[in-house]
Amino acid sequence: MKLYIAGPMSNLPGYNLPAFAAATEQLRAAGYDPVNPGRHGVIDGFTWQDYMRRGLVELLSCDGVARLDGWDTSKGATLEVHVANALSMPVQHVELWLVQTTEKTA
Length: 106
Description:
The chain contains four helices and four strands, in the order βαβαβαβα. 47% of the residues lie in helices and 14% in strands.
C-alpha cells in the first residue's frame, strides 16, 4: 500500500524533515510504500504553493495518508488530509498504520 506522509513543515526547525524521514523508514520497514514529500529537501526559489502543487500530485498517486504529529496545525497538511478524505482514502496517524501491520503479522 502506497502511503503519503502528511505533517507540518513550515516554520519548524529543519522543516521537520527528520520526522518525515523517520516515518518513511518505519513505514517502509512495515511493508508500506511511503511517499515522503520532504525527500527533496528545501528547493531554492520554491514557494509554499510550489511545494503544495508537487505534494498534491504525489498524494493523488497514493492509496492512503499517514499523518505525523502536529498535522492539524499545518495549513498544507490539513489541505492534504481534506483532499484525501474527500476522495475516501484511508487517513490515520503513522503509529496506527504501524500497529495495524503488527496486528496482521501476529
